[in-house]
Design brief:
With 281 residues, this protein is α/β, with parallel strands linked by helices. The protein contains 9 helices and 8 strands. Helices cover 32% and strands 18% of the residues.
Length: 281
């Protein structure tokens, strides 16, 4: 089953009617297990200026093939995203999936999120900030509904203070943001004992979002003893996505098709398998 859901049924903020959730649900069969499936929620990148098609359905298909029921969030971007609207969208999406766990045939305690670039920031943002009171106030739900059980951060934007991707923070917070506002959305300052386990991957030659973003986030996770796995590949441009032919744009010279980097996908699946179902790392 595939369907598109409008995430909001009331005007939470200006422009929220544009926010949608694409759902990819396995068809039930008496030949298949009746157990609820794990769920994966995808946040494509795009610098909070747009939502990249290269990091949406093609990513969901990785986890769908592994038995997950999957969801791709088209969150608010551009000028209307300012003042943390995408974080509200991420929380609302997780709450929606959990509240409809029976319909979506998923285990609400095995719900992961994955994001790329600015979408990686969004995955890390909800992983570190699901408990913030303002989310409950805005959405009228208990904060526990917003917490992902795992987060996969792919070449993520992390910090507005150290090696920042300025455009992402301009769109998320506005160009006239204060230093305190920037700090409040810099993920390395938000990690706490409430942060979920994380899988992080990046490329050392990324010249758009420097690899230091992932390194300082891993350092923060270490400080709080949050379980994580980190991979830094030596080669690969920013926006490499699956790193295979499917997500290599026609206009490129093939530099986005890197089998060595493409291993991140199966490694993340194995990591989730150990985390959700037990096993030996």
């Amino acid at each position: 089953m595939q369907k598109t859901v409008k995430l909001y049924d009331k005007p939470i903020y200006d422009g929220c009617g544009q926010v949608t959730l694409e759902c990819y649900i396995h068809t039930p069969s008496p030949e298949l297990t009746k157990k609820p499936r794990p769920a994966m929620l995808v946040f494509p990148g795009g610098g909070y200026a747009f939502v990249s098609a290269r990091e949406g359905e093609s990513i969901a298909s990785i986890y769908f093939a592994e038995g997950y029921n999957c969801f791709v969030l088209t969150y608010i971007t551009g000028e209307k995203a300012a003042k943390n609207k995408p974080l509200i969208d991420a929380a609302a999406a997780i709450a929606h999936i959990r509240k409809n766990a029976e319909e979506y045939q998923i285990d609400p305690n095995r719900l992961g999120v994955i994001g790329f670039s600015a979408g990686g920031h969004l995955a890390g943002y909800i992983a570190t900030s699901w408990h913030l009171p303002f989310l409950s106030d805005v959405l009228g739900e208990k904060n526990e509904l917003f917490k992902p059980n795992a987060a996969i951060l792919s070449y993520p934007v992390i910090s507005g203070l150290d090696s920042p991707h300025v455009g992402s923070f301009d769109n998320l917070l506005g160009k006239e943001r204060t230093e305190e506002e920037t700090r409040s959305a810099s993920l390395e300052t938000l990690v706490s004992e409430k942060t979920c386990p994380c899988f992080i991957w990046h490329t050392a030659e990324d010249d758009v979002v420097p690899v230091r973003n992932s390194l300082i986030f891993a350092e923060a996770l270490t400080k709080y003893n949050i379980p994580y796995e980190l991979h830094i590949f030596p080669k690969g441009k920013h926006g490499i996505a699956r790193a295979n032919w499917e997500t290599t744009p026609d206009w490129s010279s093939g530099e986005y098709n890197r089998p060595y980097v493409a291993r991140w996908a199966r490694w993340s699946v194995k990591w989730l398998e150990n985390l959700f179902f037990g096993g030996d790392f």
